[in-house]
Design goal:
The protein is α/β, with parallel strands linked by helices and 229 residues long. It is 45% helix and 18% strand. It contains nine helices and nine strands. Strands 3-2-1-4-5-6-9 form a seven-stranded parallel beta sheet, sandwiched between helices. The longest helix has 22 residues.
Length: 229
Amino acid sequence: MKVIVTGATGFVGGEVLRQCIRNPAITSIVVVTRKELAPEVSNNSKVKVIIHKDFEEYSEPLLRECAGAEGCLWAMGGRASAYPDVATATKVNVDYTLAAANAFAKSLVPELGDGKKFRFVLCSGMGAEMDQSKSLWMMPDTRRIKGQVERGLFEIAEQHSRGVEVYTVRPGGILPVHAGLVQSVMAFAVPCVRVDELGAVMIHLSQHGSTDRIVDNTEIARRGKELLR
């Protein structure tokens, strides 16, 4: 299986990429990134790194490199507070994601052939709210932005229902594999998953799909533990 990975220089995307490399069912990985990756990753025989500066545009040469991919693991984005303003957060989390999904749906899916699905898996966040008019008290900008991109992706899937499936995972806090004392204590106060559990679930969704298009924190933890046994 060939997959596309974004956000590979980040916490979640880096874990997803490492698991893809170790997964024998994944034979080819196209990493679309702004930054160079570590040589031990970029030199792996499975990995093709594409340095991409404008995530709102997808050129023919880039799409040719992605041809044959059956899934995209999208781990780019973050909380609104991590950006200078809401407009920038929306651009990165919503505009970039939907531009990619549209490009892949239009260019890659027709080449897959009958019966094959392109599965787009988004790392979203707990509390994502697709109803943009709903009054929110906690983290309203982040939750609306996450909900906006989810809604846009589901609309793309509906428009290309014969060839595209979309899944979103909604983790709460994300812990490293070997969490320290403070992080472990935090997990009792805030719903959390380990990053390896999250990565395993995202990859499994890209390979096998699910009856649930949204996978919440509790289900990520449950499925992740089973997959990592």
